[in-house]
# Entry
Amino acid sequence: MRRIVVLALLLGASVAAQAAEIKNIRLWSAPDQTRLVFDIDQSITYRLFQLTNPDRVVIDFSNTRISKAVKTAEVTNNVVTSLRTGVRKGSDLRIVLDTKTKVATKGFLLPPYERYGHRLVLDMNYEALSEVEQTSADVPVTSVETPAPPAPVVPNQPSEKAREIVIAIDAGHGGEDPGALGRKGTYEKDVVLAIAKKLEQQIARESGMRAVMVRKGDYYVSLRKRTELARQAQADLLVSIHADSNNNPRAHGASVYALSAKGASSEAATWLAEKENASDLIGGVSLDDKDDVLASVLLDLSQTATIEASLRVGKAVLSAMKQSQKMHLNRVEQAGFVVLKSPDIPSILVETAFISNPLEERKLRDGNYQSQMASAIMAGIRDYFKEHAPPGTVLARRGDYIVQPGDTLTAIASQFQLDVSHLRRANNLIDDLVRVGQVLRIPSLIDG
# Structure
């Protein structure tokens, strides 16, 4: 009898020892979603569901406990108001996330990888849900109207203000995805965001250009989402910034990449397979009402032109970087990086240095080097758009302007987004008086 009791106690201890433990909970806040990562010491099973009145997300973990070291009170942001835990059925764990609003939630398990162990990732998306609700509430299905076509652009008319060139800046990795790791503990995600912010500041100082940050802080953005955000911003160029890594610590220098033909082919297949449900435009032409052959031709034309433009801007950036940086590759390389696969936005990826090289890791951490790298990228962008400014943009309209009836120097300067003093100086004017028919020189970025 005594042996049976001892055996039962041993079996009970064995079962208890097999319980999984949540070691840590990490929260990352992005503009459109919150991501929670549960670090667990072994594989687990779980159930995820949502409740309303009030809104909350519930995760039931089987045979799991939470470490006392986890500071659940700190797992909050502007959407998640609190995290509560409770034991169910003796050995199961329930975690309840109270939210300020409804969220579209999905969870998935990840196996151990490099420095990480088992993880449960929970994505709570509030932007997508709000857009669906707004569409269903605000757009009656019985009264959808076809939008009127845009008015044609008439050149040299002061009433039509030229638009700025939009540059989407993509700082690689972010959040729980740190990217490459330097020997001194430098995370790729941190240094590339610092360079991206410096490039954003430089673009903001460029007349006729505007920067849009794909990632503004330390949070994760999926690769597909990065190209979607660039398209939503109607970007004229996407620049993705990364830091290289190699098993050889002596590998050094910067590189510039554009999309490869193979990468373009695989992307074309994806777009064509989903064209019936696609709401995106390829070169301004929707694919959803085209047959397969015509859609394929249109997509091929768009992708070919986009890759050619990507190579041209890549060469301009590479040439500018050579003036101040050591290059790992002396030509623009082509690869199938997902972030470069937008069929209608010229895109380049810049590897700023090798974070695996101790000397270059130190440079990547240095603010002066970060500014130099941003300046080199900026110089290449400037050179490219000087020759290839998109129609309707401020840079495309610069050159000579014929003064029209009703024009004033102030209005003309505003149209081309210039200071009046800059325009006056470029034309050697002693005052702000202009006459109809007078030809004014609209200075370019180089003049600025």
The chain is about 35% helix and 25% strand.
